[in-house]
Structures are given as C-alpha cells and as structure tokens.
Design goal:
Length: about 100
C-alpha cells in the first residue's frame, strides 16, 4: 500500500508575465511555474520531497502520473472453446503435399 503523504498545492499568485507561484501549506514547498510554449519550473523551496504533491487550477489537475501495466484482455469462453477445438485437430507436422 502507498504510505506516501499527499499534500495539496495552492496557487498563491500569478505574475504579470504569467508565471504562477504555487505553495504547499503543509510543508512549505514552493515553486514558480511558466506554462508552454516556454515551460519552466523553478523550485524555490523543496519542502517535503517524500510527499506526493498535487494541485488544481480551472479544472486542470497536476500531480504524479501513475502508469500501470496494461490489463490482459480475456477472451470469452465460447471463443476459447472454439480455438481449442480447431487446434485439437490441427497438425503442424503434416507436410504432405497437396
């Protein structure tokens, strides 16, 4: 189970240049963020680096992306049975010319 602390970042201010200042009230993490096309993230105070930080602005969320292994698709039983029936009588060693 994931025991990592979860902290919520707060948008504290937006400079006239468009650069945003984000702040974590829990641990003091602070960074400046400029969005694309000139993306840049400058850490001002690291705060708790072991915590998982996330935040949200105008319907957009930021946080750590979690990538899982894809699930293996399962074939319906009818298809599995049909394939097994076909393979039961299929002979790969039959080299007789036709």
């Amino acid at each position: 189970m994931d025991e990592q602390a979860a902290h919520i970042m707060v948008l504290e201010s937006t400079q006239t240049s468009g650069t945003e200042e984000w702040y974590c009230p829990t641990c003091g993490r602070r960074f400046l963020l400029s969005w694309p096309p000139n993306y840049q993230k400058i850490i001002v105070n690291t705060g708790d680096e072991s915590a998982r930080h996330s935040g949200r602005k105008g319907g957009i969320s930021m946080g750590i992306v979690k990538i899982d292994k894809p699930k293996v698709p399962e074939l319906p039983e009818k298809i599995i049975a049909a394939l097994e029936e076909i393979l039961r009588d299929f002979d790969l060693d039959d080299t007789a010319e036709k």
